[in-house]
Design brief:
The protein is α/β, with parallel strands linked by helices. It has 2 domains: 14-200 and 260-391, Rossmann fold (3-Layer(aba) Sandwich); 394-485. Helix content is 27%, strand content 26%. It has 12 helices and 23 strands. The protein has helices at residues 2-16, 108-111, 120-125, 158-161, 166-179, 201-206, 211-241, 261-267, 284-287, 295-310, 332-342, 368-382; strands spanning 29-31, 36-41, 47-52, 55-60, 66-71, 77-86, 90-106, 129-136, 153-156, 183-189, 277-281, 317-320, 349-352, 394-401, 404-410, 416-418, 427-430, 436-438, 440-444, 447-451, 460-463, 473-475, 484-485. Helix 5 crosses helix 12 and helix 10 (295-310) runs parallel beside helix 11. It starts with a helix and ends in a 14-residue tail after the last strand.
């Protein structure tokens, strides 16, 4: 009986204490120049006071045990400050900076670490940036929205950066060095995951164009018991022999592919935290199935929904177009790349084209430095309003000129160039029969003129429309052109464009 009483008293004491989410902790970095939400949990009706840099705000815990308080906007603060939260107990958060906060999400190329990237030893040794703060969200999935994540803020150092997102680090480093303010980066990414796992389940339920996602998942769950039985048997055999690769666990309840599962566990708990914007590197998983042509709608609606639920307006959303790669399903690759390009129709978006740095037999390009640098260029324009060349040439329109087609572009910067000199590569041209032929292409002022002796009456062209193409169209600022097509044909005959 005494033990029971002591246990109850201990439980009551723990519940009475003010509790904070993992994001509000030592070494945290707060977003400058915007209202700052500080939140947590305590007893219902408990008064909680938040203090930072001369501000003091009090609030009362609601009936469900949650409280939140808003601090007025604070300019960049590179000197460590102390955040205090007081209720029945007092919590002191040390070494708080104020600057720019970004988050990065997606699959394995966003999660790809610095220690597996190009020039890793030198990059890690030089990663001494105490005013860059990093937070890595632990991998977790959930069928219902969670209120917290696992993780901690760390100073960027050779010890902390090795196993952190390379794209996130190089992006934050470039902007930190350029803007000279503290930078925070939150990594929330999981390798091999589809866009639907990062999308709110209710959104997919209400949008008929995404009902196929839910139907597919119902089919997965129906087949799970038999698949689990086969897996268990194979695992026992493997553990007895220890030969070959460990059997892959079948998809089913709790799998990271669960529609909405990663949104619930790895995005929802971040929503109260003020950020400047997000970067995204994902699409490989969706390019490898028969629904690749649905990616644009899925991606666009996910962005809109994140923006709506974050509650900070249409924040900048930057993403990486899939790098060149030679997967087994080559058709889906350019479809997803095209979908990503068309997502730029959404306001405050930017895209890093990477179809020049991929690796034919490795879906994880090691050159993450250029990826981060190109995203940082996009951020400087989209998020910070700088007038600079931040994108490679982007298809605008075509015009017919006899047996040739003239192509017009935006973002030509200082002019169009064929990287490495010589002829332009990567262009094909077609007549009304939808049979594309290799084309001769040459730069003509601010346009490209395309023709083929095998196509006398051209009506359509494509550029880099392959999984591992050899196109070399850039602007003189060193940024590559995105793939494009002038047609919308569901089927067409394509010649080889591989390197």
């Amino acid at each position: 009986m005494l033990r029971l009483i002591l246990a109850l008293l201990l439980t009551a004491s723990l519940y009475a204490n003010v509790r904070l989410p993992a994001l509000i902790s030592d070494h945290m970095l707060l977003q400058r120049d915007t209202p700052l939400r500080i939140w947590g949990w305590a007893d219902a009706g408990e008064q909680v006071t938040v203090g930072l840099l001369g501000q003091s705000v009090s609030t009362t815990t609601s009936s469900d045990g949650r409280w939140e308080a808003f601090l007025k906007p604070i300019p960049a603060q590179s000197t460590s400050a102390t955040l205090t939260i007081s209720g029945k107990n007092t919590i002191t958060i040390n070494d708080v900076l104020v600057g720019e906060v970004w988050m990065g999400s997606g699959q394995s190329n966003m999660a790809w670490t610095v220690n597996r990237s190009n020039n890793s030893a030198a990059e890690i040794a030089a990663a001494n940036y105490p005013q860059i703060r990093i937070f890595k969200v632990a991998l977790k999935t959930s069928e219902t929205p969670l209120d917290d994540v696992e993780g901690k803020w760390e100073l960027c150092s050779p010890e902390s950066i090795a196993n952190f997102s390379a794209v996130g680090y190089f992006f934050a480093r470039d902007l930190h060095k350029h803007m000279k303010v503290p930078f925070g980066f939150i990594q929330s990414a999981w390798g091999g995951t589809p866009v639907q796992a990062w999308t709110r389940l209710n959104l997919m339920e209400s949008d008929s164009s995404m009902h196929w996602v839910l139907a597919n998942w119902r089919d997965v769950l129906a087949k799970y018991p038999a698949a689990k039985e086969r897996y268990d048997k194979s695992l026992l055999e493997w553990e007895a022999k220890k030969e070959g690769n460990r059997p892959a666990q079948p998809m089913g309840p709790g799998h990271p592919h669960t529609p909405g599962g990663l949104y619930n566990a790895m995005i929802v708990p971040l929503l109260p935290y003020a950020i400047r914007g997000a970067i995204w590197y994902q699409g490989e998983n969706n390019a490898g199935n028969k629904f690749a042509d649905q990616y644009r709608n899925q991606f666009v609606e996910m962005i809109r929904d994140w923006r709506s639920n974050w509650g900070i307006g249409d924040f900048p959303f930057l993403f990486v177009q899939l790098a060149n790669f030679a997967p087994g399903n080559a058709i889906g690759w350019p479809l997803v790349q095209e979908a990503q390009d068309k997502t730029l129709d959404l306001k405050k978006t930017g895209m890093a084209v990477t179809n020049d740095i991929g690796e034919e037999r490795d879906i994880h390009p090691k050159n993450k430095q250029d990826v981060g640098a190109r995203l940082a260029l996009a951020a400087r324009h989209v998020a910070y309003g700088e007038n600079l060349v931040y994108s490679g040439p982007r298809y605008r329109q075509i015009s017919r000129e006899g047996a040739s087609i003239r192509v017009w572009f935006d973002h030509i910067g200082k002019g169009l160039v064929a990287k490495g000199g010589g002829d332009l590569r990567g262009f094909v041209i077609s007549g009304a029969g939808r049979e594309f032929a290799p084309a001769r292409a040459r730069i003509d002022g601010q346009t490209v003129l395309v023709s083929s002796p095998n196509v006398s009456s051209p009506v359509a062209i494509r550029y880099n429309w392959a999984s591992f193409p050899d196109g070399n169209l850039y602007n003189a600022d060193g940024l590559p052109a995105s793939l494009f097509r002038s047609d919308n044909w569901d089927s067409a005959t394509m010649p080889s464009l591989t390197k």
